[in-house]
Amino acid sequence: MIDEILKRAENGKKLDNEELFQLFSVNNTEDLKKLCETASNIRNKHSKTIKLTSTVHITNKCQVQPRCKYCGFAAKTSRDGYYNAFYKTDDEIRQAAKSIEEARVPRVSCSGGHGYKGKQAVHAAEIVKGETDLELLINVGADLTEESTNRLAELNTDTVCCNLESTNEAIFNNVKPGETLQDRIDVCNQVCDAGIELSSGLLLGIGESDEDRFKHLLFLNQFETLGEIPIMGFNPYKDTPMENHPACPLDIQLKMVAITRIMYPKIRITVPTPTIGPKNVEYSLNAGANNLATVIAKNYPLEVKGVGSPTYGNLEEVVSVIESLGLTPQYL
């Protein structure tokens, strides 16, 4: 049955929800390989170009209280994360953005903590869009007002990310007790209303079921400007309330990348190198991903840690993997 469903998907046939949900039952190595090959082939029919995204972490000063239980990004949350509080100066943002441009990485994600009504995001956008040719993704979660979102649109911000992480409200409330799911949904709608491409993804391994994951992927289809879905596997940070919660297994991450590709054949599927693990980039590409995030070149001037892990993807190593698979890294 799985073979027949995969054959139909690869031939461009629209699968119904029952068929799509059957893909979640894949639980052996052979079927997972077939699932990933199908997803990879679907991506390649549209494009074999792989986007690279670097990062500037604007600030780890975050006013969300209580803290998200998994977060090692905010100040004083984890000794492995950004423990000491920072707020990047204009010059630091400028130098980092220009180093990314010099390395010919085409895209930068500017991310930061909550509590600024989007002003930190707008300020970063003014620098990046005013002084470089980089594509810009802004990721400050639900910390955007209608005014700041519209200003990001005026600045030609390419993408705004607001991850829902889980649409199961009980799970969301458990791991993110200082936020509400509805606030994040509202920001996603706000981004769409402003005509900006929306990025919104899933955090895997935080207690959700396959049904939850499937409902989440279906839920995302309502957002008119959805252009990117990050697939992130949970990784525990030391000192956080979830430090002993198990990391999301790689096979679950790969299965979700592949199913997302089958459900959304043309969309940008992002795998952050910290959460997949820099050494596992090959597998995510072979599962149908086409954007690798938190890719850092040697000329990068600032300390950087992944939001989901202290590690990140080295540009040269990532490019080597992409090219070894017969794919093409996108350069500026």
Structure overview:
This protein has 332 residues and is an alpha/beta fold. Helices cover 40% and strands 16% of the residues. The chain is built from 13 helices and twelve strands. An eight-stranded parallel beta barrel has the order 1-2-3-4-5-7-8-9, surrounded by four helices. Strands 10-11 form a two-stranded parallel ribbon. Helix 3 crosses helix 10 and helix 5 runs parallel beside helix 6. The longest helix has 18 residues.
List the helices and strands and how they pair.
Layout: H1 2-10, H2 17-22, H3 29-46, E1 49-59, H4 90-102, E2 107-112, H5 119-131, E3 135-139, H6 146-154, E4 159-161, H7 169-175, H8 181-193, E5 197-199, E6 202-204, H9 210-220, E7 226-233, H10 250-263, E8 268-272, H11 273-276, H12 281-286, E9 291-293, E10 295-296, E11 313-314, H13 315-324, E12 328-329
Parallel strand pairs: 1-2, 1-9, 1-12, 2-3, 3-4, 4-5, 5-7, 6-7, 7-8, 8-9, 10-11
